[in-house]
Design goal:
By secondary structure, the protein is an alpha/beta fold. It is built from 15 helices and 13 strands. 42% of the residues lie in helices and 15% in strands. It is elongated. The two termini are 67 Å apart.
């Protein structure tokens, strides 16, 4: 039983960790996922999967692409070509001044920029010469009617064919313009109170559109009633001859210096807010971890020492060499050393050794970088071994020294 105690404790710790992950956040227990992501791949209610997939039907002749780089460093579009459209759908749009200038240059070259966000940074508001009133989250509380938290939008007629209202029972989370520059801006849409939430700005040969109800691009909104008509109408402001449409998620992926509004803390995070309880939990977990590690170390078996494998083939070669040397058969041993040398030349330098002439010596000297005179002397001695009747031990020792020098330097 004592041997199994550490493993039982480790199993209980693992089960507790899994339970914390599953029960620590009450949002995970809900079937309806309330997260607002507006990402093209998300099929949750407030994702933008349907909006992205329908781009190919709205713009059948255009290439649909995705980009997540900051303005001016796009991977999928060119800042100098025309006939392109950039779609930025994000809960927040905190673009810096140089990024806004890059988008303006892009639009002036004959392109369209469509921005939809419910919160815009100060640089963006100054750049578009507008002021914005944001959604008051205090309007939605316990017991309030659904209509108070329902998005209702409409389009200006003209330029659109009719002044229809579109709505859904989900979160509103929209904003509206308090003021716009009437000299440069044209109003295209309104919210449920008739406030302006969609404007158009002319930029050179292109256009910039600013929209303040991004949840109108969510799956939940587009699947409700005939809201796809709103989606198609609102994107009809983009030139129908557009060649490329880019769905940009740079501002969705961008990290902001403050926490997101839609995050919810679980009960475990709430417990950690109390310093005394926080340190008690951390100390208990640390003590338990140390006990488990020390107990496992005690029961660990010693690792046997593994001896390094011996190279028996090298010992065999040395034994055969000593055998030939002890017998005095120097010629036979020298011929075998010469044959090994020629095999080394064939394998390493890919030079045929059938004819050991001056051309062979020249090619070997070129590939090995070995000295010409020493190499010529070495090859001449190997040729001499074919017709020699016998050689002395001094000749054998000199030949061995020449070979070793070649192997080391070549």
């Amino acid at each position: 039983m004592k041997k199994a105690t550490p493993y039982i404790i480790l199993f209980l710790v693992a089960v507790a960790a899994v339970l914390l992950l599953l029960t620590g956040n009450k949002e995970n227990q809900k079937i309806f996922d309330p997260r607002i992501t507006l990402r093209k791949r998300d099929k949750i209610p407030y994702g933008a999967y349907i909006a992205y997939q329908n781009l190919k039907h709205i713009f059948p002749g255009a290439e649909i692409a995705y980009d997540k780089m900051e303005p001016g460093r796009w991977d999928s579009l060119s800042a100098f070509k025309e006939g392109q459209a950039l779609l930025i759908i994000s809960p927040r749009f905190f673009a810096e001044e140089y990024q806004l200038k890059k988008m303006l240059e892009f639009a002036k070259n004959g392109n369209d920029v469509f921005i939809s966000a419910m919160v815009m940074g100060e640089d963006a508001r100054d750049f578009f010469h507008c002021s914005i009133s944001y959604f008051d989250f205090s309007e939605v509380g316990a017991g309030s009617p659904v209509e108070s938290d329902s998005l209702v939008v409409s389009l200006q007629s003209p330029p659109f064919s009719r002044h229809s209202r579109f709505s859904y029972p989900g979160h509103r989370f929209d904003s509206h313009f308090l003021s716009v520059d009437t000299l440069t801006s044209t109003v295209l849409g309104y919210d449920h109170h008739g406030n302006k939430n969609f404007i158009h700005l002319k930029a050179g040969r292109g256009n910039v559109f600013v929209h303040l109800a991004p949840l109108a691009f969510s799956n939940y909104f587009l699947l409700n009633r005939n809201n796809l008509d709103y989606y198609e109408n609102i994107l009809s402001v983009i030139s129908p001859s557009v060649k490329k449409v880019i769905w940009d998620e740079y501002y969705i992926n961008k990290r902001y210096p403050y926490p997101q509004d839609d995050q919810r803390k679980g009960w475990f995070s709430a417990l950690l807010q109390y310093p005394g309880l926080k340190w008690a939990l951390l100390t208990a977990m640390l003590v338990l971890l140390v006990y488990v590690v020390l107990e496992m170390r005690r029961k660990q078996r010693p690792i046997p020492v593994m001896t390094k494998p011996r190279n028996d083939s090298l010992d065999f070669v040395k034994t055969i060499g000593r055998l030939y040397y002890d017998k005095g058969d120097h010629l036979n041993l020298a011929r075998k050393m010469g044959a090994y040398f020629l095999e080394h030349v064939r394998n390493r330098y890919k030079i045929p050794t059938g004819n050991l002439d001056e051309d062979f010596v020249r090619r070997l000297q070129f590939k090995s970088g070995y000295e010409w005179e020493a190499l010529q002397e070495l090859v001449s001695f190997i040729k001499h071994l074919d017709n020699a009747g016998a050689i002395t031990d001094k000749q054998l020792a000199s030949f061995h020294k020449q070979l070793e020098t070649f192997y080391q330097k070549a």
